[in-house]
């Protein structure tokens, strides 16, 4: 199981939200490129980067920071947060981003997303299927829709997408443990998908239990920033 540090950006700095609420924002006062370098020096090979301002605006905003992270040698990156246009996808891939995280389009414009897959390759995308109160959350988690997973996910798989991310929004940034039942169900129901878990991780015991669910990786944010977990410790716990 892959350990993936998260970097959330507002105005070029590292922040964390709780349950996706913008009013819960906590600033860490750390430049995101500096933070990415810290993770790289700790041994991280892959980062999950979210442009929080972009998620709200519906377009990538923090290009300078993302480009800076992309220049770090030996570090692979997936980036999300408001990706709505083909132009943004093209630019992200051109600056070295390995995967573009897309959420809203998977729900609102699946045909458009399919067209992107045909142009850029489905392996260049990670589909975010985030849940809030049992419904799919999108548009920066500010909106929800009662969409059936057993309809959405098979259609995405048939279009060639295999990389998926799921966050339990109500646990994100809360450090109350991950929703293990959610990931067990996702892995069991959609075994052809490569699932990344996100939200709530605060201990190595969480990681061991997540590994048992069969997820391919776990994204960790707040626990790293608060010093509750260290990257090296997490890697050792699942080896």
Provide an overview of this structure:
The radius of gyration is 16 Å and the shape is globular. A hairpin with a 4-residue loop joins strand 9 (about 135-140) and strand 10 (about 145). The protein starts with a strand and ends with a helix. It has helices spanning about 30-40, 50-55, 65-70, 85-95, 105-110, 110-120, 150-160, 180-190, 205-215, 220-225, 230-239; strands at about 1-10, 15-20, 20-30, 45-50, 75-80, 100, 125-130, 130, 135-140, 145, 165, 195-200, 215-220. Strands 1-4-5-6-7-11-12-13 form an 8-stranded parallel beta barrel, surrounded by 6 helices. Strands 8-9-10 form a 3-stranded antiparallel beta sheet, with no helix packed on it. It is built from 11 helices and 13 strands. Helices cover about 40% and strands about 30% of the residues. It has one domain (about 1-239): TIM Barrel. By secondary structure, the protein is an alpha/beta fold.
